[in-house]
Automatic annotation (TrEMBL):
It comes from the Bacteria. The chain crosses the membrane at residues 12-29. It comes from Echinicola arenosa. This is DUF4230 domain-containing protein. Keywords: Membrane, Transmembrane, Transmembrane helix.
């Protein structure tokens, strides 16, 4: 055997060479002569091709309906929608009356003072000062704007008439007058504590009264009209791919599964052709009965109701469910063609949050009701994502899908922060809804104080810019709203400033009876705010005073405000600015630091135990406005044996007890401001200590960073890419 191998060794080598060449050619595959193999198309390109399809019909419904002009007028199809709308409208009306109750609870002097700063109106005393009665309740609600949106609802008049009949005239046929409606509103106001949301029985009763009003409103000529028609047509359902975004498609190549997020089947078209089946002479519309002076508009109204009724039957026949099932099969074939790989499954994910977000941002303005629903749906969506991350089966797929959902949510939140909220003074953000809830009754109670304190999460600073982070997280939503703690801090400060401007009062107030002399002294006290007072005797010697501590308003600034109002770009700019701080002075040899007209003095024992830094940075570039105003009137914001931040011209050798009594920032704020300033200085010192080679490398990287994440390094051998 061995001899045979030696004898034919050349032949064996030739065979091995041929096999090697074949393997090499197959692996190299020049010009694709062995087939293209499996190649994944880019998701964005795939979505672009799908967008070009436009609408895809995947289910159709054909049917026949009969309707009349009487049915078209009453439109019973909308009864369920009307019952839902009237339930919401009744709750809105009760909320308006609750707001009026809260307004009346405010001290009269507060209400008068607020009025004097606004536009003047006739008979202002009966609206501002007087108690609520049946003669002024409508004026009060109109002045305060609580009925603006409610009174504009098409069902408002019907609701008020229904409530009037329920309260006063259940069996009468007469129409209520303005005075009747005022009495009804006042009756609701007085019995507000006993009012309950409409139950199903009351909603049905309202619909009956609503339809009765429609019939009674018809003229004699209209009531004599008779028109009955048969309508034959079709309803088509499917998908509108024009709504498909690149973030809406998640493709798992290894498993051949495509997930489509936020794209749901819908009715694309509903129509009744004049000739339903032309070849058999079957018309789309056929009149069964006609009487009276029926005109073109009557016929058009009945035909449209035929289409609406046909669409309702299509829904009842589950056309959307059939469209979804057929769409899965159709799109499997479509995506297989686009990717060049067999798609085994297409999964649709209905997402109420994404669907609502699309509707809410159409007018590029966020209302209170939209903000409320947006927040609720967002929290539900976050819970779904958390459950996907913690799943046991199909972990890789579910977690990948959760990551894609997170990206979509972040994109939506970024867009929504560009839209104005309510009157448009501020842009919509994480705190917008909470700010509205707190300010709704013009008061701050203990629960809201606790909420503001909990939302004020701490910040921690390491030795690098990338190490800035939250000390604790109050709400998991903050990570979706803000990609950096500085952005959260800025929005929180904005909310506090807005609440301060509203000059909200406290729910916990004190009352006292004081002599006139003590009352005069009380008025000038900075720590007390008098909300109401009245003299108890004709000589004005005794005064009944309602007051609360004004220190609470100050604490919104001094205790909760973040001491930093800065973006990361400014922090990086400080890193590269010329002469950020001068030569340090030793605090051991200087009892009083000279006053600085620009910049500030900073000392932190853990950073440098013997020297303070004269920083050439304008405090306006990083201090929030309220603290900046305080800094203009005081030599320092904090001063302790371990550190200080100030303008100079103050004695360094002060006892700890004396310093504690003059503290402007609390312990947490001092810790945050000190951590921030120490970080700035450490970053700058590290920058100054870099060699020319390191600085050149950083400069090149900042301008040549590759899109895929590779970076260019400058070495002794020249440029290298890693």
């Amino acid at each position: 055997m061995i001899g045979l191998l030696f004898k034919n060794w050349r032949f064996i080598i030739d065979i091995l060479l041929v096999i090697g060449v074949v393997i090499l050619l197959f692996w190299w595959n020049p010009l694709g002569i062995f087939g293209g193999g499996l190649k994944l198309e880019d998701t964005a390109n795939m979505v672009t091709e799908v967008n070009e399809i436009g609408e895809l019909v995947t289910a159709e419904y054909y049917g026949e309906v009969i309707t009349s002009i009487d049915e078209a007028r009453l439109n019973p199809i909308q009864s369920e929608d009307i019952k839902e709308e009237i339930g919401i409208l009744q709750l809105d009306l009760l909320a308006a009356l609750t707001n009026l109750t809260n307004y009346q609870k405010r001290p009269v002097d507060d209400r008068v003072e607020e009025y004097r700063e606004s536009e003047k109106i006739n008979n202002w005393r009966r609206i501002i000062k007087h108690e609520v009665d049946s003669r002024n309740i409508m004026e009060k609600l109109a002045y305060l704007g609580y009925l603006d949106e409610i009174a504009g609802d098409p069902l408002y008049d019907d609701l008020m008439e229904f409530l009037w009949r329920q309260e006063f005239e259940p069996a009468t046929d007469k129409e209520p007058k303005t005075r009747d409606l005022e009495k009804t509103m006042f009756q609701l106001y007085n019995g507000l504590d006993n009012q309950q949301p409409f139950n199903e029985e009351l909603k049905v009763a309202f619909i009956s009264n609503y339809h009765s009003n429609l019939n009674e409103s018809l003229s004699r000529k209209e009531s004599r009209k008779r028109l009955t028609m048969i309508g034959r047509g079709w309803v088509k359902a499917g998908f509108d791919f024009g709504e498909l975004g690149s973030e809406s498609v998640v493709y798992y190549e290894d498993r051949g599964i495509v997930h489509i997020i936020g794209l749901t089947p819908k009715i694309l078209n509903a129509d009744i052709n004049p000739w339903f089946i032309p070849e058999k002479g079957i018309p789309g519309f056929q009149i069964l009965d006609e009487k009276g002076q029926v005109n073109f508009h009557d016929a058009k109204r009945v035909k449209q109701y035929c289409i609406d009724k046909l669409t309702m039957y299509a829904y009842q026949a589950q056309i959307l469910e059939n469209a979804r099932k057929q769409g899965e099969e159709t799109l499997k074939n479509l995506f297989s063609l686009l990717t060049g790989q067999e798609i085994k499954q297409v999964v649709f994910h209905n997402n109420p949050f994404i669907e609502f977000a699309k509707e809410a941002e159409e007018d590029e303005w966020i209302s209170y009701s939209e903000a409320y629903l947006f927040d609720s749906l967002l929290r539900i969506e976050i819970k779904k994502i958390d459950s996907l991350k913690n799943t046991v089966q199909n972990q890789s797929i579910n977690r990948g899908f959760a990551e894609e959902n997170e990206k979509i949510i972040v994109q939506i939140l970024q867009r929504f922060q560009q839209y104005p909220y309510l009157e448009g003074r501020d842009m919509f953000n994480y705190f917008s809804l909470q700010k509205s809830k707190i300010a709704e009754d013009s008061l701050i109670d203990k629960r809201e104080i606790e909420l503001l304190q909990n939302m004020r999460v701490g910040l921690s600073f390491g030795s690098e810019i990338s190490q800035i982070q939250y000390e604790n997280v109050f709400d998991p939503l903050t990570g979706y709203w803000y990609d950096h703690p500085f952005k959260y801090a800025k929005s929180y400060n904005g909310m506090l400033n807005a609440l301060i401007e509203m000059d909200l009062g406290l729910t916990d107030v004190d009352t006292a009876t004081l002599p006139k002399t003590e009352f005069d002294l009380l008025l000038v006290k900075d720590s007390i705010r008098v909300s109401h007072y009245e003299y108890l005797d004709p000589n004005e010697e005794k005064v009944l005073v309602t007051y609360f501590s004004k220190n609470f308003s100050d604490s919104l600034y001094t205790n909760w405000l973040y001491p930093i109002a800065l973006n990361l770009d400014s922090l990086y700019a400080f890193k590269e600015m010329d002469k950020p701080f001068e030569d340090s002075l030793s605090i051991a040899s200087e009892n009083v630091l000279p006053k600085r007209t620009t910049g500030f003095w900073y000392f932190e024992s853990s950073l440098n135990p013997t020297e303070s830094f004269a920083v050439n940075l304008n405090p306006e570039s990083f201090l929030p406005k309220p603290l900046l105003l305080k800094f203009e009137t005081t030599p320092y914001l904090y001063h302790s044996e371990f550190g200080f931040f100030g303008k100079g011209n103050f004695n360094l050798n002060v006892s700890a007890d004396a310093l504690s009594n003059k503290r402007i920032l609390n312990e947490q704020q001092t810790k945050e401001l000190s951590g921030f300033l120490s970080l700035m200085i450490q970053v700058r010192i590290a920058e100054d200590s870099k060699s020319l080679l390191d600085k050149t490398t950083d400069w090149v990287n900042s301008r040549t960073k590759d899109r895929k994440g590779s970076q260019v390094y400058f070495t002794k051998r020249g440029f290298q890419v890693k």
